[in-house]
Design brief:
By secondary structure, the protein is α+β, with helices and mostly antiparallel strands. The protein is 16% helix and 25% strand. The protein has one domain: Beta-grasp domain (Ubiquitin-like (UB roll)), CATH 3.10.20. It is globular, with a radius of gyration of 12 Å. The N and C termini lie far apart (41 Å).
Length: 91
């Protein structure tokens, strides 16, 4: 099942400057593994040493924040769109 992943500009160096990439996965966690296979090194920017999603990176499936769904276990369907959005802080 193909899922479109929207890549933020700071991570596009891992995707050969592509703003979006198609990957496979039935859950967000599986999608991240597929993304790592296609774009080596990107998962370390998205997950900590224990493999948990980093707190300062937000993930949305079809505009729904996965923190309010099932987190990394959120199910994906063919044609879904996953947005990766780094948190922004400032004053």
């Amino acid at each position: 099942m193909a899922v479109k992943v929207l890549i933020p500009t700071p991570l596009q160096k891992f995707t050969k400057n592509q703003a979006s990439i198609e990957c496979e996965g039935g859950t967000v966690s599986e999608l991240l593994n597929s993304l790592e296979q296609n774009c080596p090194g990107i998962k370390a920017r998205l997950c900590d040493d224990q493999g948990q999603l980093r707190r300062f990176v937000n993930f949305y499936v079809n505009s729904e924040d996965i923190r309010f769904l099932d987190g990394a276990d959120t199910s994906l369907s063919d044609g879904d769109e996953v947005s990766i959005v780094p948190a922004v802080a400032g004053g």
